[in-house]
Amino acid sequence: MQAPPRPRSRPSADRRRARDERRRVLPVLAPILLVLAIGVMASLVAVTLLPLVGAAGLGVNAFRERLDAAGVGKVRIPRFPERSVIYARDGSVLATVFLDENRKIVRLERVSKVARDAVIAIEDHGFYEHGALNFPSLIRAAIANLAAGDITQGGSTITQQLVKNAIIGDTSKTFARKFQEAALAIRVERRYTKDEILEMYLNEVYFGNGAYGIGAAAETYFRKPASKLTLAEGALLAALIRAPGAYDPITRPDAALARRNLVIDRMVEYGMVSPEKAERAKARPLGLAPDAGPPEQRVEPFFVTYIRSLILDDPAGEFEALGATRKQRVHTLYQGGLRIYTTLDPDWQRYAQQAVLTKLDPRRGPDASLVSVDAKTGAIRAMLSGKAYERDQLDLVWQGRRQTGSAFKPFTLVAAFEEGFPPGKVYSSASPNCKIPGWISESGCVSNAEGASGGSYVDLWKATEDSINVVFAQLAVDVGPERIVDVAHRMGITAPLDPVPSITLGVEEVSTLDMASAYATLANDGIHCEPFAVARILEPKEGGGYRTLYRHEPRCEQAIDPDIAHLVTAMLQRVVCCGTGTVADDGMGRPVAGKTGTAQDYTNVYFAGYTPQVATAVWVGFPSGQIPMNTYYGTSVFGGTLAAPIWNAFMVRATAGMPVEHFEAPPRPPTGKVPDVVGLRSEEAQQVLAEADFTPVVDKVDAIEPVNTVIAQTPAPGTTLPLGSAVTLQVSNGKGEPVTVPRVVGMGKVRAVQTLQAAGLVAEVVFVEVDDPADIGRVVAQVPIGNKVVSAGSTVTISVGAGKG
Question: What are the pLDDT digits (tens) for 545-555?
C-alpha cells in the first residue's frame, strides 16, 4: 500500500503566516518557556523514560539500545487488511469479501481536500509543521499526567496514532507504551513523507459501522467515493475518528451533528475554510445516504459461493499463488485487497433466471439448475442453482448431483465407436426386454421411457434419435460399462461412477456443471477443456496499482477422437431435428445438437445440448428427493417436454448475435459386401456375418433342410450395405413339407409364376438381357433348378428375358 517517497507537502500561506507570528513572539517568551520546559521535561523523562532506561547514566548509546530492544530499531508500517472485490466478465461488481475489516484503500489524491483538512483540523492541526511529536501538546499532557499520577492525556500526533494502531496494537495507557509509541513515531517520520503518513492514517483509522479507512467510510455513510466528499461530509467522517460509537450518525444523529460542526469550526480557526462556507455547511443536515450503514447482509449469489470454495479449498491445486494452505488463502482472499475477475456473463445469468422462472412455477413445484460454458475454453458463462437461491441456498449445480436419464447415452455411443462398433449396428427395440444377458436391474428387464417400443430392429442412429432404452441396454452390455465410465471421466464427468450396465440410462448421479463440461467436449472436436470460473486475480503493488497474482492457464486435452465426436454430434443433431428434443431447436436458427433425459419414475428430467460455441445443461426435479414429477403435473413429463424448453429459452437469447457456425461433417459411414452364408449352420453363418461387421437376425422357418441350416438370406449375398446393418437369415427348423420344384425354364413369366405358386412356392422375378428375341418374356433360368426338393414356401428365383437397352 505504501507509496513511493514524495516531497513533503508545503504548508499553506495561512499556516506559514501563523508560524512566522509564533516565531516573532517566541524570543520574548523564550526564557519563561525554557524554564517551564526544563522542569516539565525533566519530570517527563524521570517518570516516562527512566523506568525503561533503568538509570540516567546510560547515555545516548544505551538509549538507542533500549529503543532497539523495544522493537523500534527498524520500523515499517505493515500493509492494512483490505477487502477483495469479485467482478463479472463485464467488469461489474459481483461481491466484496472481507472478514472483520471492511476496508477500501485509496490514494491520498483520491480523497477530497476538504475531507483531508477536516481530519487534520480535529486530530492534529499542526501535522505538516511539527515533527513526529508535538512538544507543546506533550508538555500539556505531561503536566496533566504528573498531576494525576497516571496517563490521562495523550497529546498524540497523527503519526503517533498511526503507530499505535498499525504497529503496536496496544491501546493501554501506560508510560511504557507511550514511550514506545513516541520512539516509533520518530522512526516512522524518518522513513515516510508526511503525505505518505497521512494516506496510511486515513486508510487505517476506524470510522464505525464496520468501515475501516476513509474509502469504505465514504461508501458506508454516503454511497460515494472519497474523492467526492463535500465539506459537510468530510467533517462528519473526521468527527467519528475520536469515538465512532459516541458520534454514530445513524444511531446518535444529534451528537454526530454537534461534533461535525465542531470540526468545521476548527477548520475555520485554522484557516482551512472561510466562515461563510463553514456556516453553509453547518446549516446542512447530516446528508446520509438512505441506506447508510454496513453492507447489507444478504445471501450472495451461488456463483460467488462457488468462487470462494474454489479458491479456499483449491481442489485442483490451482490457487497456490494465494497461499499454500487454506489458512493462508483465507488471509489473502479476505484481507489481501484482491481484484478477482471471473468468467460469468451477467446477461446470460439473467437469461438463465428468466428462462427457469418462465417455464416453471416460481413459488412451488420442481426446481431447476442450469450451467452454460464456452465450448472452446471451458469458461463458465452462467451458473443457476435453483429458482431462488437467496431463499433456498441449495447447491444444485456443483456438489449437488442428480440422475441425468438418457442424457448419459452419448458416453455409451463414444465408448462403442472407440471399440469399433459401427453406427449402423442394429438391435431389437422390443420393449420391455427381459432377456438381455448381463443386464442388471431390480426386475431384470428394461423398458423404453421415450421413443419406439415395437419389436423392429433399429440401428444406433434411430435408437439415439428416439432415445430407445432397450437398444442402449444391449449396447452397454456389449461395450462394457467399464469403458463407458472411462469415456465419461475423460470427457468431463468428475463424479464417481459405478461400472454397471444401467449407467447408460443415467442412473448414476452427476452434477449439471459436469454435464455441460462433458457435452462441450463433443462441441469442441473431442477436446475437453476443464471448466473454470476465475480468469485472473490482481493484487495491490507497493506504491499503488496492481500486479497479476494469478492468470488461468487453459487445461485442454484431446479426450476422444475428433471423428467420433463429429459422428456423435451428427447423431445428436438428429435428436433435435427429428427426435425427442425438437423443442430445443425452436427459433435457434443455427446448428444444434443435444440429448434428452428422463430418469426412472419421472423423478429427474434433463436436456444437455450445444452449438459449436456454447454447451448448456439443464436439470429439473425436486431438490428434496426422488419425487415423481408426473404426480405433480398429472401427466408424464420428459426431458424433451420440461427441460428442453428451458434450454431453448436460454440459448436463443444467449447465442443471439453470435456468428452462425456449423459442426464438422461426420466421417462417411463404412460399408461392406454381405457375405454368402446360405447352406451354413446358423451359428457359423452368424459368426461369418459378425466378423464382416453385419448384424445377423435369425428367422426360424419350416423347411426340410437339416435343423439350423441357413436356407436363405436377405439382403442377397454381395449386396453393399453400411456396416452393422441387419442381415436376416432364414434358418430351417427341420419341419418343412417337402416340395419338388417344377421346371419352369422356357415358360412365359405369368405361367411360370402361376406354376410355382400352385406348387406352394414363392416366385421372385428378375429380368436379364437376352440376345435371342425369342427369349424375351420367357424364363431363361431358375434357382433352385427343376426337380430339386425344397420346403413348401421356399423362394424360387426365375430370370426372365428382356430386350437390350
Answer: 899 999 999 99
